[in-house]
């Protein structure tokens, strides 16, 4: 991994120099010199430590976990370990494996927020009982001690599942906005978790390719792929609510038009 790639990864994660130092074990002054170009030939051990933190794509390297309690093997972590992680470090726990969560991009947040507002507006207008909710929010998906996820947007229709600590059980509807660092996890790992846990409908929104991939598990109709010019019905509400992705695109068009 080159220094330039590390710089790009730092920007994607939103880490400060102090956070990189704390999580990698590399002294703060050394981190600053490496990223500012003051050190042209960093030590091999320094590069190794930085690459372990920045080069893993978030798939199973959480240094903070090691400094907080005795290191376990991936697959052995539990909710007890999850709640030991400092609040300023966002992770998901899936089948005992920790996955780092990068800072969301502007398109990611604008898309998720816009759709959440539309879903909430539909519920309010129709005096519905389902509750749209937006991340960050813990979902104890399987009601066990091995999995906690944080989808971008959810709808929960059984209010008994909503407790102070988390949503306990599968939401009815889930949206994940894809990013480079979470794409594989959202499209493979979490897709299967949501399907097997009893989620009724799952949307994956791809801002880069301007696509929406819809899995209607309840009616066994999937996947259906839409463009950002489509009007997509929310099937758990029998299509009474429709998200117009032309409106979504217009909301973020300015980001695509910048050179």
UniProtKB/TrEMBL annotation:
Q: Name one Pfam family in it.
A: Uma2
What the entry lists under CDD domains is as follows: DUF820-like
Per UniProt, residues of the HTH cro/C1-type domain are: 6-61
The cross-references to InterPro entries, in alphabetical order and at most eight, read: Cro/C1-type_HTH, Lambda_DNA-bd_dom_sf, Nuclease_put_TT1808, Restrct_endonuc-II-like, Uma2
| Keyword annotations | Endonuclease, Hydrolase, Nuclease
PROSITE patterns recorded for this chain?
Answer: HTH_CROC1
Name of the protein in question? Uma2 family endonuclease
Which organism does this record belong to?
Answer: Faecalicatena orotica
